């Protein structure tokens, strides 16, 4: 309605506005504001030019913050064009690194009682799963493509039966002195130990669930110490 009044009162402003579009939206709006001042005797309280300018300025920081967010959360295993890559750890300093991971295997009462009594047809479930977990930790780089081949100084896998919910808790610990962490080695240990439990017990029941695989603790390296707090 306001623009219609302006163009009716001053046809020249319409021609000027049309001819200025090619020189930029903001320049044309500024010219229109000048014409509005000539028609009404004073500039509008909130000019279209300032509104457009403010809108432009308000949008700029939003774009910048979005870009910053993307940059700060880049995945180290992804290259600039999105391809998978192995992280170069050569610039890093060597340090003592440890990691502890855990998982839970829900057995059910029937399987739990058989494992507790060591009556499974395949043999000693807990011992076989323990050995499988230790072996898996040493093979992590062969199982997970972008993991580094780490010289482990220590691997330990412990299994504990829980009578209250007929489950089995598996805890795996890995240690090394080097330029990259051992979190994946610890998590691989408990994962394969859990799968081994399933394999040893599946003849008795298929209702076995491997759950809550997670990193419990890690130390060493640039990121320092971490504890699972949930």
From TrEMBL:
Keywords: Lyase, Molybdenum cofactor biosynthesis. Pathway: Cofactor biosynthesis; molybdopterin biosynthesis. Residues 86-221 form the Molybdopterin cofactor biosynthesis C (MoaC) domain. Residues 60-79 have a biased composition (Polar residues). One of its GO terms (molecular function) is cyclic pyranopterin monophosphate synthase activity. It catalyses: (8S)-3',8-cyclo-7,8-dihydroguanosine 5'-triphosphate = cyclic pyranopterin phosphate + diphosphate. InterPro entries: MoaC, MoaC_bact/euk, MoaC_sf, MoCo_biosynth_MoaA/MoaC, Mopterin_CF_biosynth-C_dom. Residues 49-90 are annotated as: Disordered. It is an enzyme of class 4 (lyase). GO terms for cellular component: mitochondrion. It comes from the Eukaryota. HAMAP family: MoaC_B. NCBIfam families: moaC, PRK09364.1. This is cyclic pyranopterin monophosphate synthase. It comes from Cajanus cajan.
